[in-house]
What does this fold into?
Amino acid sequence: MRIFALLLLVPLVAFAEPATVIRATDLKQEPATDSATVAALPENTPVEALERKSGWTRVKAASGEGWVRMLALRFGGATPAKPGASGLTQLFNVARTGTSGTQVTTGVRGLDAEQIANAQPNPAELAKLEKFATDRDAAAGFAAQGKLSATAVDYPKP
Amino acid sequence: MRIFLLIAAAAFSASTQAQFRLPNLDINRMVDTVKNVGKAVKEIDEPEEIAIGRDVASRLLGAAPLVSDPRLQRYVNHVGRWLAAQTERPDLPWQFGVLDSPNVNAFAVPGGTIFITRGLLDRMRSEAELAGVLGHEIVHVLRKHHLKAIQKGAQTSLAGDAMSAALRDRAGPARDKLIAFGTEMYSRGLDKSDELEADRLGIVIAARAGYDAYGLPSVLQTLQAMSAQDSAVALMFKTHPAPGERLDSLGEKMQPVLDAYSGQAQLADRFVRQIKTQVTR
It folds into this structure.
């Protein structure tokens, strides 16, 4: 559990993932459009993504290191498949209840398609959910603590 | 227009039947059918939307309970309620819950209930990312995406009169069917256009609330880096357009908004503090 917590604390810098530039894009010295261009990366250039800062990602490419628009990057599907944590949990649930997750209608909880489709009401949890709800004033106070202020932004035209 | 088509369809099917038993053609029955179909198409009002949402939320909580941590639940409610206050439906009974599941997913329930899983929260890095995801879910509620899908689907799976019975009698068997159908919707997903709309408008809502507009794209990029074979993301991938496609669509349509509000708050520290407390506890 503690190790898990530590993993969460590892800063963004730690991620070094293989990625690809999906369109021709400039590799910038700083995360800004008006910054100097280190290199022009052609479409499909493989890079290593190192760090993200808002709309920019720092990458290492054969032609140098710098920042590219994060929306110009896609992470490769090359990462090997690892069993998800939920897979383990489901196995655990099945082992504990001795039933198969695909056929039962009750008993095995979880959020896969089958389990959602067969879910039964849980009024006790619903009551808890309602208890945790907050009002607009409390939310505004919370926002102020974080120095968040509301701005007018229009929805895009459909 | 829709009502007209349905009435026409009902009349047509009634007249097809009539061909086989012309002698005792039951005009009254035909009229009843048309009336019921008309009723089912009628807009579901806000109290009804909220009531349906409560029942669906209760079922989803039957699939996965809340994380047993009042502080975490309140934190997510604060972020969500602040976002919801920036929208055209600020006074719905908004409530937000973290579901105790390692799966990566989030759900919007009609009437203002939003769920996010522990698994998704664990993969986020800042409050701006949380705001991006909650903003997306809030849009589903604002635009009644699920409510409309439930209504549309229920009309074909439940007969028109069963639908009106479900709305009339909140304890009857027709109601049960409607809610079961509404819950199952979350295992099948919405139209792609609804999801892409929720992405676009969700970004606007996060920006209005003062958050870095790149929160949602950042989460999408995290998801994109996950293997589709990972069972934690299986349902989310099945019910949503691929993260890469969603990023493409945002890049195409939202770049100006993203850039204009990219310098706003991320609140990574506040977020990590909340998450950390919960995990090391």
Observations:
- Chain B touches chain A through 94 residues (CB under 8 Å).
- Residues 61 and 99 of chain B are 8 Å apart (CA to CA).
- Residues 2-20 of chain B form the longest helix (19 residues).
